Amino acid sequence: MDRGSLSALPNLAVVSAPFKLISMRTIAFAVALCAGISAVSAQEPSGKLTGLARQGRALAGRLCAQCHAVDRSGLSPHAGAPPFRTLSNRVDLDTFQDRLRGHFSSGHPDMPTFHFTRNDARALTAYLRSIQGP
User: Fold this and answer.
1) Is residue 5 in a domain?
2) How far is Cα 128 from Cα 51, in angstroms, rounded to an integer?
């Protein structure tokens, strides 16, 4: 084959199509697997928070603790603010991360509107998963 000639090469669009399908399925599976692992691994076996969840705890303390109970116990300072350890009863934590990335607001007049970066939304969600009650 002449190095300058492409006529001897197979049609890559036809040859690569099955590989694209396999690759997309593999990627989708890997993403789903990672999401499940991150939900389970927000806490280490010793009960200590992972780095991402620790970052989320710091965010919760800085941005939310004035109104919400942000730990595994305690009452919320604002009577109407749900404790973070019970949020999974009110919101789907699988989609909550995306809601945080938008201009998140509960619609409650006392709650400010927040806009989280991708990493901060991941961190806060990891922390929330780590403290949910049974």
Assistant:
1) no
2) 13
Q: Are residues 20 and 59 in the same domain?
A: no
Cα–Cα distance measured from residue 134 to residue 62, given in angstroms and rounded to the nearest whole number: 26
φ/ψ of residue 114, rounded to 5: -120, 150
Say yes or no: 31 and 71 in one domain.
no
Buried b (16+ CB within 10 A) or exposed e, 108-125: eeebeebebeeebbbbbb
Report the distance separating Cα 47 and Cα 9, nearest Å: 57
pLDDT in tens, 57-76: 999 999 999 999 999 999 99
Q: Which pair of tokens denotes residue 133?
A: 């009650």
Residue 122 structure tokens: 């991941």
pLDDT of 107: 63
Residue type, 6: L
Within this chain, do residues 32 and 95 fall inside the same structural domain, yes or no? no
